[in-house]
Write a structure and sequence with these properties.
globular, Arc Repressor Mutant, subunit A, 2 domains, mainly alpha
């Protein structure tokens, strides 16, 4: 049986810990982040923090997933602003690539001393991130295009998600150019076209 007050307090504590951890990573890098410092700043014991996240790797995972959720909120807004399926794919990719450039925590993940701990959460250990992004994009697209078949749409969404991550990690071209190209790829599969 769940206790709504305890659950709410736990969520507030987790959010506060993630806010502080993000500040600490930006100020001191991943190596400078100490669970003890986070616990002290939010007024809980280290054991409470370990119970919530497991360890520093769990804290890193939680930071990345919270950042993903913020990106997905922006994706929803980008999708809602457009009318055609292709334009929605283009807006989705463009939003993520443009937002990635200006997101300080993501920059720290990709370029700073934090990269050894965080980067696998986007790449080799990125399964949970890819799955959440894929499922979210599928649900958002189907909201606007209910005639789409979810199974092939999920395949396309996963491929586009993986390609977007690749472009975030190693940006070689302008976001607008990449967005147009990936949008063309997304609608090339005739199984994923709205009727």
């Amino acid at each position: 049986m769940t206790n709504p007050y305890r659950d709410s307090a736990r969520r507030l504590m987790r959010d506060a810990a993630l806010d502080v951890a993000a500040d600490e990573v930006l100020a001191h890098g991943w190596d400078g982040l100490q669970m003890r410092a986070v616990a002290t700043r939010i007024g809980v014991s280290r054991q409470t923090l370990y119970n919530a996240f497991g360890d520093k790797h769990g804290l890193a995972h939680a930071l990345i997933m919270r950042l993903l959720d913020r990106f997905l909120d922006g994706v929803d807004a980008a999708i809602a602003r457009e009318s055609s399926l292709r334009d929605r794919w283009e807006a989705t990719v463009r939003f993520v690539l443009e937002a990635a450039v200006s997101e300080p925590l993501l920059r720290a993940v990709l370029t700073g001393t934090s990269s050894d701990e965080f980067l696998p959460l986007l790449t080799s250990d990125g399964g949970p991130l890819v799955t959440r992004a894929r499922d979210h994009v599928v649900a958002s697209m189907i909201t606007h295009h209910p005639d789409l078949d979810p199974a092939p749409l999920a395949e396309v969404a996963e491929s586009i998600t993986r390609l977007v991550i690749s472009h975030v990690v190693l940006p070689l071209h302008a976001p607008q150019e990449v967005a147009g190209h990936l949008a063309d790829l997304a609608v090339a599969d005739t199984r994923v076209r709205s009727h």
